[in-house]
Amino acid sequence: MSRHGNPWSFSDRLKRNYKRRSLKKLTFFLTVDNVVKNAKSRLAASAKSSEALNISEPDVMNLKSTQIGTDTLCHVRKLYSEAKYDEAEKALFEFIEAGAKSADTYCLLADIQHALVRPDHEARALEQALAAGASAFLDNPEKIWLRLGVIRASQGDHVAAVAAYKQSLRIKPDQFAALYGLAQEYLTLHDLDAAYLCIKDLKSHFPHEARTHLLAGHIHKALGSTAQAQKCYYRALAYEPELGEALYNLVEMDPPGPDNPLAASAAKIASHNHLPAPDRINAGFALARIFDQSGRYAEAFEQTRRANNLARNTLKTRGVSYVPELAERRIARAITEYPVSSFHTTLDPLPIEFTPVFVFGLPRSGTTLIEQIITSHKDVQTVGERSFARQCELRFRKTRLEAGRTGPVDPSDKTDAELLAAAREQYIEDIFACGMDGSWIVDKLPANYQIAGFLRAIFPNARLVHSMRDPRATCFSLYWSNFHTHEPWYHNLMHIAHYYRQYSQLMKYWQRVIPGPYIEVDYEDLVHNPQEQITGLLHRIGLPFDSACLTFYDYKRPILTASHAQVRRPIYTGAIDHWRHYAEWLGPVRDLQAK
């Protein structure tokens, strides 16, 4: 039964089949100790850095030269210590190819790859070290699993990160860094129950750690318990006064005046060059909100600019940068892969009542608000902000290439049709395994705008809902928001404007070639005339009117996006023109054309 009491409308045979496959999949996940509830999320780059977890980065192994035992490895270590990483890598590869495949050798390789900022290669070397077996290094294998978890988390491979953290804890229980990392990953995967259990363990074993209370604050914030969240954040600051993340969350929920002690703390942390970058970035964004609240817009923008520059530089040191040419190629590929002919033939209809509603658009364009409105309907459920569809699209493209299929997607081709049908079935299984049992499911992920053609190809009946907002307001909000752990283009106004133009080009293309139901929602119209716009939105989706959608702010559910506060109160118009206070400093963003 759905949460509203409506039965899942599978035929008995199909229901048994889907349930059997889902249970089989669930059994697999249980065998790896309940990694996650079948989440396959690959978000934009994560901030679970070694610095945040207080892990010494290349020194986790602490290889002892006396254990290396060969002149070659001593030479490689010398090259490594002299920062001659390319030479060290070449010499070590030659040694490995000669048969020296010990754990110590792979650990050294991992250190070199770390120095070269190649996280994929570093992770592979760590996995090879674990597989190599007996070595003195394996006296502390939990550190290797912990380091592997940090890398996978930073790459957005949250399933692999969870598995690594859990393995580390299995070897050595009650490690703060591994438990903290695991709780963060569960929060990222929207598994609040699992995150809560981790935080409960953290409170039991590490009650005096500031980050224990920081994560507890995040849980309460997601649930809308503002007072409880504030208590947790204050407690975190009591243990670690320079913890910028706790400070930012306090200020964001209730911006104080410039004479408040929090303002002085933010100014001190933001200007302290010897503090970790994440603390300074959070403090800078906090200070911006304090100045904004007081109408000191020039000072607020200067703090925002500094925080974004620091965030961009921090990502660069991890090898993460915005490359405009790559963004352009991604858009061109989407257009090439899904010409109008891709929609002339459709897959056979599903023999079940299942209608997904995909909500997408740029971040900060109103997607969370639209999701909240639709999900308040008695017949609708939401999977939250998951990457199920994107993972299915990645698998489809990979298997299609392996099958020798290139060029435009053609559902009239037998191979493409079979691969699309398999992707659709995988998506439904992912939804089913999450406990979704209704016939109307909302899937909200802003970045899904890139794969709208794929979504229409696998679900001809899906409702594609595109949230549109004034580009200047959207792009300013991206720059203004504290997204320092997200995409690198958020932190430079020129890059934001360039990215917006690529997005706009693709959305105009989808609007022209994708058959309906394709629904565009204007954020400004929605805010100015909510009753009429909400009623019309439900009608276009094909849902009967439900007055609960008008009071969407009363519907209680965990919200982990930056819009958590806005969707818990009636619609207001204050945010529409906020960007205008900063127009004189927005440069290329100010020049973007309206929708």
The run of helices and strands is HHHHHHHHHHHHHHHHHEHEHHEHEHHEHH
Helix content: 55-70%
Give the count of helical stretches: 25
Please tally the β strands and state the result: 5
Uncertain runs are 1-69
Class per helix and strand makeup: mainly alpha
The fraction of residues in strands falls at under 5%
> Reading side by side through the largest sheet, how are the strands ordered?
2-3-1-4-5
Rg calc: 25 Å
The global form is globular
Average pLDDT: 85
Note the gap between the termini: 41 Å
Question: What do you see in this structure?
Answer:
The chain is mainly alpha-helical. The chain is built from 25 helices and five strands. It has helices spanning 12-31, 65-68, 71-81, 85-97, 103-115, 119-132, 141-155, 158-171, 176-188, 192-205, 210-222, 226-239, 244-253, 261-270, 277-293, 297-317, 324-337, 367-375, 388-402, 414-433, 452-458, 471-480, 493-513, 523-528, 530-541; strands at residues 355-360, 380-382, 440-444, 463-468, 518-522. A five-stranded parallel sheet has the order 2-3-1-4-5, with helices on both faces. Helix 9 packs antiparallel against helix 10 and helix 12 packs antiparallel against helix 13. The longest helix has 21 residues, at 297-317. It starts with 11 loop residues before the first helix and ends in a 54-residue tail after the last helix. Mean pLDDT is 85; it is low at 1-69.
